Amino acid sequence: MAKVLVTGGAGFIGSWLVDTLVDKGLETIVIDNLSTGNKKNLNNKAKFCETDIRDEKISEIFEKEEPDYVFHLAAQMNVRESIKNPIEDADINISGTLNILNCCVKYDVKKIIFSSTGGAIYGDDCKIPTPETEKKVPMSPYGIAKLSIEKYLNFYKNVQGLDSVSLRYSNVYGPRQNSKGEAGVVAIFIKKILSGGTPIINGSGNQTRDYIYVKDVVKANILALNLSGIFNVGTGKETSVNEIFRKIVDGMNSDVKELYGPIIKGEQMRSCLDATKLINSGWQLDYGLEKGLKETIDYFKTRD
Ligand SMILES: NC(=O)c1ccc[n+]([C@@H]2O[C@H](COP(=O)([O-])OP(=O)(O)OC[C@H]3O[C@@H](n4cnc5c(N)ncnc54)[C@H](O)[C@@H]3O)[C@@H](O)[C@H]2O)c1
Hints:
Blueprint lengths: L2 E5 L4 H12 L3 E6 L14 E4 L7 H8 L3 E4 L6 H6 L1 H21 L4 E7 L23 H20 L2 E7 L1 E3 L11 H10 L5 E3 L5 E2 L1 E3 H11 L4 E5 L5 E2 H11 L7 E3 L14 H4 L9 H14 L2
Helix pairs in contact: 1-7, 4-5, 6-8, 6-10
The structure holds nicotinamide-adenine-dinucleotide.
């Protein structure tokens, strides 16, 4: 049975991935520094190493565990934070990732599956839904770092023979998403309404996103074990912030009304991914927005 290592396995998407890997009977090791992740998310059948991906000691973990596959999700994933502090962002998202890639080469990992982004590398003037081939114009240090790693992966494949998959996610939502950050409008809106407050919609609310449920993203990661290359992971459906607000309010039987705040400068107006390439490789969505939102609302009502 294959052995897998998941960086960021105490985080939102990583922890759901770890649960699935463990359920499939795979021996699973988690590396996470708990900066945004949470011990509560950790699967107790996975081995946990509380370490930073930039730490040289990572090499000792690879040497001891000899994983066959690595899922790399650990990242500084806050776009606004990357704009405020591009050096820290590059330190984690580029240097930290190179540390992981070097270990993959040194300890003969068969493949690395990298969590990239479709929401932050294509820019605003692109075809909607956006295919992988569209030009890349990342607007933030976060997007630049993710795109850089895709290019490094190409280098590591050509020169070091390391096989890889980059999965460009759209806007992921679901249970366990952190509502304290600035990403994750679904978690932020639900938690605000549950606490008796009114969420603020930035700008007109007409900006669109492609909301994908976390379990469909996990499914893409599992499929990626048998793939190579770059794939969008999205639903191909655009939903405005106004629409998602309404669906959440209605789903919670709340009477909260829209409250608008200032527009966020530099915020992308439209984002929606074409995932035909992944669908043609055997992936399909299990969750529509209604079903995914219902599970998410139910989770936040009872836990967290
Ligand atoms: N959530 C989304 O909508 C979305 C969209 C596109 C891409 N992604 C990517 O998916 C991945 C997972 O995102 P998420 O939403 O689960 O975020 P998250 O913040 O919940 O998970 C990231 C995890 O990485 C850990 N981490 C951060 N820096 C680390 C470091 N230096 N060393 C070790 N661990 C570290 C955190 O503690 C956390 O557990 C990230 O790479 C992110 O860029 C997410």
